[in-house]
Write a structure and sequence with these properties.
This protein is mainly α. It is built from 3 helices and 2 strands; from the N terminus they run ββααα.
């Protein structure tokens, strides 16, 4: 499905960007061009990004480590 109509970016392209290392909206924007024109797709792009990251690194996988700052 199209996520960004302005730049014709699909959810598959965002998922591929995540597979290629994108882990933030900024990285997705740099790799795909999504969210770089009107910005109305940002919420859906974030949802696809978050789902893709979750698929790559499931929280309930037993490999959960607390982040330290």
């Amino acid at each position: 499905m199209y996520v960004c109509i302005c730049k014709a970016v699909t959810d598959k392209q965002i998922k591929q960007a995540v597979a290629d290392g994108a882990n933030s909206l900024r990285a997705v924007r740099q790799q795909t061009g999504a969210m770089s024109q009107c910005g109305k797709c940002a919420c859906l792009a974030k949802q696809v990004l978050d789902e893709s990251l979750e698929e790559q690194h499931p929280i309930n996988s037993g490999l959960f480590f607390a982040a330290t700052c």
